[in-house]
Amino acid sequence: MTESAAKLAAELAGAQEQAGRMKAELGGVVVLDFGGQYTQLIARRIREQQVFAAILRCTAPVEEIQKLAPAGIVLSGGPSSVYDADAPKCDPKVLALGIPVLGICYGMQWITHTLGGKVEKAARREYGRAQLKVGCEGGPESSALFSGVPAALRVWNSHGDQVLALPPGFRTIGMTENAVAAVEDVQRKIYAVEFHPEVKHTERGTELLRNFLFGVCKAEPKWSGAAFIEETTAAIREKVGNKWAICALSGGVDSTVAAVLVHRAMGNRLTNIFVNTGLLRKHEFESTLEMLRDRLKLRVIGVDASDRFLAQLKGITDPEEKRRRIGREFIAVFAEQAQKLQAGEAHGEIGYLVQGTLYPDVIESVSVKGPSSTIKTHHNVGGLPEKMPFALIEPLRDLFKDEVRQIGKELGLPAEVLVKHPFPGPGLAVRLLGEVNPTQLATLREADAIVVEEIRKAGFYEKVWQAFAVLLPIRSVGVMGDFRTYGQTVVVRVVESDDAMTADWVKLPGEVLAGISTRIVNEVSGVTRVVYDVSSKPPSTIEWE
User: Fold this and answer.
1) Which of 98, 202, 213, 464 is deepest in the core (most CB within 10 A)?
2) Pick the catalytic residue: 58, 90, 105, 247?
């Protein structure tokens, strides 16, 4: 990143910090991130209760936390062990502020370890579902954390360590078969659970979080999508000043909501650029340009750069290298368009690039707030080059897809945009395994269009998260018209999800699958075999690359 771009990025970060402070003043909660994959999911569950949650690194100074005046503090999970030499830590003063604290998984272990308890590697690790028995040690009285919750719950675990001895002042309020699962120190308002109440696999997990927010923290439900829009546009407007911006617009939910949101802050100083990478779905370039210009009245430049993107991908089979090359080429195209715009009359300095990056993109690509693991690089996050001519504006970076759809609804976007299935930034390049070339893309594009058409016809399009085709670099023997064939294989992938952090394959009726298979084999030249993907996330990801 250039020196000027770095300065602009610092300014925007300051604006976002100020916005976070405003939100916390609405009675919000601070989530300290120890590197857990579910950290943002914790914040999302809190926001669902109309309480804002600001995520900070676990190493954030106590003074920074206090500036946000939170009603409560949540310590996230994480992949480390508290007894590791490089284990993530936060300032122990966090536990002495008098602000209610809830530790989750690693957060519970860190609290125990820090306050004089004992944590060791578990003789029997707990991953997945477990039975929780709710009960208070030393008496029948109930805990505020489990108020109104049954005495037995199915919960979701993900830990290899366990608490063996509690710190002074704590008592056990929940056990699984193998471990202490929930503890509290009522006097210090410190609560902790070994399981994950934020995931939907935990029964009554939302109620536990509500008990903490409203029963313990006395938080007030003041945050909403409208508040997010107002605060975000105000923060962008204040720091961008009289500079101009371009937006990487694809026509999908994320980038369209980001464009409309930033347009509210900047007006006509925002120019949207829609790039045909040659990796789009069937007829997508033309239909998207029409919708953006004519229906949404956005200022959009369409750029056909398909030849240069395909040239970058020639001979490349590694999926991470595909993403990196696509990310670099996007930036090169945007930089060229920015130069052309700035050369025009009555046009100011373009200092920003707007992207519709969401939190699942971020958490899978890079360590954001804490020491989390990288799963895969997204072209618009980890795939970006180190040196860029723009600072980034990513107003949706801390949100999930369903939250973005709600923001889009608040902004007045049409339903056809809001229900549109997610499409990866690298496009068909990560649904075509192996080398990307025009012939293979044409095959995949036709098969994908059939999948979507049949899913729509069967009434499933708005009920599922994603439906698409994948083309494998595998050929198999077949027979067509009494002749032996040696054709290609298409995978059909249809999943249901709430936030893309977890997903399950959809059990489509046999007649729908049969219709998809018959059409693909009959209508897409060279394809002789169609298979259905029945893997969930985890262990698989939604996309194949």
Assistant:
1) 213
2) 105
Are 55 and 43 in contact by the 8 Å Cβ rule? The answer is yes
The active-site residue out of 90, 184, 194, 196 is 196
What are the b/e assignments for 320-358, b being 16+ CB within 10 Å?
A: eebbbbbbbbbbebbbebbeebeeeeeeeebbbbbbbbb
Cβ proximity of 445 and 281 under 8 Å: yes
% of the chain surpassing 90 pLDDT: 50
Name beta bridge partners: 472: 489
Stated as kind and residue range, the H or E segment containing 154 is strand 152-165
Domains and CATH numbers, the chain: 18-216 (3.40.50.880), 225-418 (3.40.50.620), 431-532 (3.30.300.10)
The active-site residue, picked from 198, 403, 454, 545, is 198
- 105 catalytic per annotation: yes
* Calpha distance 337→172 (Å, rounded): 61
Alpha carbons 389 and 351: distance in angstroms, whole number: 8
Whether 347 sits among the annotated catalytic residues: the reply is: no
Query: What's the pTM?
Result: 0.69
Q: Is 136 a catalytic residue?
A: no
b vs e for 134-171, b when ≥16 Cβ sit within 10 Å of the residue's Cβ? Answer: bbbeeeeeebebbeebeeebebbbbbebbbeebbeebe
